């Protein structure tokens, strides 16, 4: 599996920001990637564009880098980079080509876990315009079409499925015209976010040395239940009758939610979150998402890992995520190494 390095790539011409970036890199014992001695990365990139008179070289460049060094801890770059190419009036072609190349590369099995951590620096007008929409893949891929239908299919999938986009991209937008203290603070926030994700990934990929109950290995996956209006959604089916009193517009996980059933539980949960309980009824992502693990459900030390994964990826669009856990299940939840990652989301019930 491709690994993350401690290297930071800086592709910026914003002199106002570069000093703060270099101070941040040094203060956090990181290493800035130098592609050619005595020349900035932005000038190195600009020279390559002039040599090729195109951006077709980017995919090979990124592929070679990932194979040799792993993916960068962070890539800090300007939103708009002047390429002097005839079809790049907005100055966005480099960023879009960079992201498209990365998406194509992660179709390679050995590189599918690579992550693109982008810290994008803008000027004041762009920041005001884009700060709330920059995470939307549609912005980067609008009007983007190739002569390859397979590539177009991948682009469409990224455009239409935020969770697919979130799986391999982490984006932060910063105002390059702000003062240095704000920029350094935002860089540190982003760094901590990236490190938390890396820590989670390592835990997820690590083998679990835990004795598993035979009962769990043959158990059915927990039901996903959601009450809305006077109806109940249960694993994709709608009914007006349910034997227990449930709170409106809250998700309930009822049953076995362990390492043996986690994939099915995730599938059921995401089907509800993405599509809503019925056509035309979407779960409001501007509100808190409430998830209840019911009394009598079964969990194990992989449950917090699964929840942390969901919160940092597929559920990240919600205002916040609160997970209500019965007090009887807390000893198992707290035993997990991933518990500290979801501790702030847990409410003991």
Could you give the topology of this structure?
Blueprint: E1 7-11, H1 15-27, E2 31-32, H2 41-52, H3 58-69, E3 74-78, H4 93-105, E4 116-122, H5 124-130, H6 137-141, H7 149-160, H8 162-168, E5 169-175, H9 180-205, H10 214-217, E6 223-228, E7 231-234, E8 237-239, E9 251-254, E10 256-257, H11 262-275, E11 288-293, E12 298-299, H12 303-312, E13 320-325, H13 330-335, H14 339-342, E14 346-348
Helix pairs in contact: 1-9, 3-4, 7-8, 9-12
Query: What fraction of residues sit in β-strands?
Result: 15-25%
Shape: elongated
What is the SS-derived class?
Answer: alpha/beta
| Sequence of strands across the biggest β-sheet | 8-7-6-9-11-13-14
Order of helices and strands: EHEHHEHEHHHHEHHEEEEEHEEHEHHE
Mean pLDDT: 85
Helix content: 40-55%
Rg is 23 Å
Number of helices: 14
Terminal CA distance: 39 Å
**In this structure, how is the largest beta sheet organized?**
7 strands, mixed
Contiguous runs where pLDDT drops below 50 for at least 5 residues = 207-214
Number of domains: 2
Give the strand tally: 14
Summarize the structure.
This protein is of the alpha/beta class and 349 residues long. The chain has helices spanning 15-27, 41-52, 58-69, 93-105, 124-130, 137-141, 149-160, 162-168, 180-205, 214-217, 262-275, 303-312, 330-335, 339-342, and strands spanning 7-11, 31-32, 74-78, 116-122, 169-175, 223-228, 231-234, 237-239, 251-254, 256-257, 288-293, 298-299, 320-325, 346-348.
